[in-house]
Amino acid sequence: MDANERVMVMMNSPPATNLGDSWSKVHEDAAHAMLKAAEACAWKDQDIHHRRGSYRAMSIGPSFGGGQEVWLHHLIKVLLTLDSILKIS
């Protein structure tokens, strides 16, 4: 957690039932989907180089006065319909 008690990273173990190689496939499919989603994003320099370091990070959520980019919300909704993402979450 950060200073504001927000979760920054979450790790989880495989489900109690033995899924064998299929659990690895779930992770591979989720990683592939997230990489494709990252390629679809319109990254600005401020999204790549920011005060926390030089890596890709994009803010999502409510925006007061600045508006939100509709495509980003659509992208998140699409990711959340994928079986691999749902199984991990």
Q: Your description of this structure?
A:
This protein has 89 residues and is mainly alpha-helical. Helices cover 45% and strands 4% of the residues. It has helices spanning 21-40, 45-48, 70-79, 83-88, and strands spanning 49-50, 53-54. It has a two-stranded antiparallel sheet with strand order 1-2. The longest helix has 20 residues, at 21-40. The mean pLDDT is 76.
The side-by-side strand order for the widest beta sheet comes to 1-2
The gross shape turns out to be globular
Number of helical regions? 4
Helix content: 40-55%
Features:
89 residues; 45% helix; mainly alpha; two-stranded antiparallel ribbon; 4% strand; 2 strands
Quick structural overview:
This protein has 89 residues and is mainly α.
Topology:
Elements: H1 21-40, H2 45-48, E1 49-50, E2 53-54, H3 70-79, H4 83-88
Antiparallel strand pairs: 1-2
